[in-house]
Specification:
Length: 386
């Protein structure tokens, strides 16, 4: 059909315009396809070839605490954190997981007391990442259970608090809010990278989670990592992954290692970060442009509002920068009560605020889709008015 319409121009453009206005824009998931273009340009610098006889063993490093962690990948993790200065890796155990989602579950398993009379409460300040309650409760564990918004948690008992910083969905930097004795904290730092937020200091928490899904855009590789201070916690998390999936794909770890290496190489060799080869510089520029476009579209429409962010000094970019989160936490203003259905009426699929412990005047919009789709979204949003 595309071929046919392209060859006969007059009637074609009308069809194309109609197609454009009918196309459903799905921004429900945070699929990071925006980064594909950068990696296409990188060419073979990020290509991995694995022969049939390679990587066959279950084991990567039998003597290490995390015996299924590829040493090559661990080395690249340390190198990248030192370069970006977003997390301290010294005196930490590095663990690998099938996405940070597996490591999140491993952390719950490791932190929950094994023989308590009831499951330990798991909380996060609203609005929180909607997968947390779902993943915490889907197996109805006897070890841990979801206890809702950390701001209203008032039980005098041990708890696990999830701190996502910058936060999914609203993009703000976060700190623990409960701060009571008997509390344990998991820091999900999936978005603590220069393209999303100024890097103000290296994160130095007991248990930190990262993922290639959001740092480099390789969500399909399903690789995350944890930096863990306490040896017993690191051991138990490793045990969880051993019981759950007997380790983590070596193929994926080597691919992730190669990707991180490509980023480090290109950033290190740049005196001038402005070179389009620097992944974070390049992505930061794209995110800046997208957020500017979004704020313009919201202004034009007049029906929505967005969070405002304070610029901070970014140690990586070496200048003051504004946050540009991976999601836009969009609010419908006026008398629109259900922002998700309202936008669905305009063929824009988003995720309602109610899934995040907020109300339905909010929706979460992915900022990481491909250029064509994102531009179509801006065009459509700017024309929505009362
Ligand atoms: N934590 C947060 C805050 C996320 O937004 C996501 C992905 N949307 C994840 C974890 C899961 O990441 P992964 O693909 O590494 O499992």
């Amino acid at each position: 059909e595309a071929h046919i319409s392209r060859s006969c121009s007059a009637s074609t453009s009308i069809t194309e315009i109609e197609d454009r206005s009918k196309k459903v824009i799905n921004f429900d998931h945070g699929d990071p396809t925006m980064f594909e273009r950068f990696w296409q340009k990188m060419g073979d610098k990020s290509t991995v070839v694995i022969s049939g006889w390679q990587l066959m063993s279950y084991f990567s490093d039998p003597k290490s605490l995390c015996w299924f962690l590829e040493p090559e990948f661990a080395k690249e993790i340390v190198k990248l954190h030192k370069l970006v200065r977003n997390a301290i890796t010294d005196d930490r155990y590095i663990l690998v997981g099938t996405g940070s989602m597996q490591l999140f579950q491993a952390a719950l398993y490791a932190l929950a007391p094994p023989d308590a009379s009831k499951p330990i409460a798991v909380v996060a300040a609203a609005p929180y990442y909607n997968s947390y309650p779902l993943v915490t409760d889907y197996l109805k564990s006897g070890l841990y259970s979801w206890a809702g918004d950390a701001y209203t948690f008032d039980r005098d008992e041990p708890y696990i608090e999830l701190v996502t910083s910058p936060n999914n969905p609203d993009g703000y930097m976060r700190e623990a809010v409960v701060n009571r004795s008997g509390g344990m904290v998991i820091h999900d730092l999936a978005y603590y990278w220069p393209q999303y937020t100024p890097i103000t200091s290296p994160a130095d928490h007991d248990l930190m989670l990262f993922t290639v899904s959001k740092s480099t855009g390789h969500a399909g590789t399903r690789i995350g990592w944890a930096l863990v201070k306490d040896k017993e916690v690191a051991k138990k998390m490793t045990k969880f992954i051993e019981l759950n999936t007997i380790g983590v794909s070596k193929d994926s770890q080597l691919r992730a290692a190669k990707i991180l290496q490509a980023i480090s190489d290109n950033c290190q060799h740049l005196g001038n970060h402005d070179d389009g080869k620097s992944f974070f510089k390049h992505s930061h520029r794209l995110m800046t442009k997208r957020w500017e476009g979004l704020r313009d579209a919201v202004r034009q429409s007049g029906l929505f509002s967005l969070p405002e962010f304070q610029p901070r000094f970014c140690n990586y970019l070496d200048r003051v920068a504004e946050p540009h989160p991976a999601f836009a936490w969009l609010k419908c203003e006026g008398d629109i009560e259900d922002c998700e259905s309202f936008l669905r009426g305009h063929q824009i699929i988003t995720r309602s605020g109610k899934h995040f412990g907020a109300d339905s005047t909010y929706v979460r919009v992915s900022m990481l889709d491909r250029d064509e789709t994102f531009n179509l979204f801006l065009e459509r949003l700017s024309h929505i008015n009362s």
